[in-house]
Amino acid sequence: MEIGKDPQVIVLYDGYSKDEGTSMLANCTCTLIKGRTNIVIDTMTSWDGDRLTEALYKNGINCNQIEFVICTHGHSDHIGCNYLFPKAVHIVGFCISQQYTYFYHDFQSGKEYVINDKVKVVPTPGHTLQDVSVIVETDDGVVAITGDLFEKEEDLRDDSIWKSAGSDSQELQIINRKKILDIADYIVPGHGPMFKVHK
């Protein structure tokens, strides 16, 4: 699914999660923001390098053109292909770095990280205590790329879905889910397709 013109929000791969009894089969949703600033959000697992490179190529982008890599949190299914983007600034949860330089930013107190006038990174702890979401203003509305703050659209009706996926603070997750639902027209969740917010 694709939203907007500049910036464009392009979901490269829909995430999924399935309980297999003794294990979980899962991969995260991976999203490209294409425009004045090219951004990849949540880079899937370490086994997805060829898939991700190919998806970017189909959208007219190569890895060296990505300026920011944003991982909504540090779990392995969201950070696996960060290595593909050596020129980018990497934001993994509350940690911001480029090569060997780490930048100070006070996500902890709620401070947003502004990439440009259309894209910002906001702290949304809950699933982990350092979760972030990416808020994108497009000509089709506000898109929130949230990682596992929302697992999938179905967890709007069944909160056992996001709770069973793990939550470091259910109280914070409830607060931040409401905050995102209040501002977003579309949500890209951590393990499902983009969905429209019905208000």
Automatic annotation (TrEMBL):
GO terms for cellular component: cytosol. It is found in: Cytoplasm, Cytosol. It holds the Pfam family Lactamase_B. SMART domains: Lactamase_B. InterPro entries: MBLAC1 (IPR039344), Metallo-B-lactamas (IPR001279), RibonucZ/Hydroxyglut_hydro (IPR036866). Coiled coil: none annotated. It catalyses: a ribonucleotidyl-ribonucleotide-RNA + H2O = a 3'-end ribonucleotide-RNA + a 5'-end 5'-phospho-ribonucleoside-RNA + H(+). It comes from the Eukaryota. Residues 27-191 form the Metallo-beta-lactamase domain. One of its GO terms (biological process) is RNA 3'-end processing. Signal peptide: none annotated. Homodimer. Endoribonuclease that catalyzes the hydrolysis of histone-coding pre-mRNA 3'-end. Involved in histone pre-mRNA processing during the S-phase of the cell cycle, which is required for entering/progressing through S-phase. Cleaves histone pre-mRNA at a major and a minor cleavage site after the 5'-ACCCA-3' and the 5'-ACCCACA-3' sequence, respectively, and located downstream of the stem-loop. May require the presence of the HDE element located at the histone pre-RNA 3'-end to avoid non-specific cleavage. This is Metallo-beta-lactamase domain-containing protein 1.
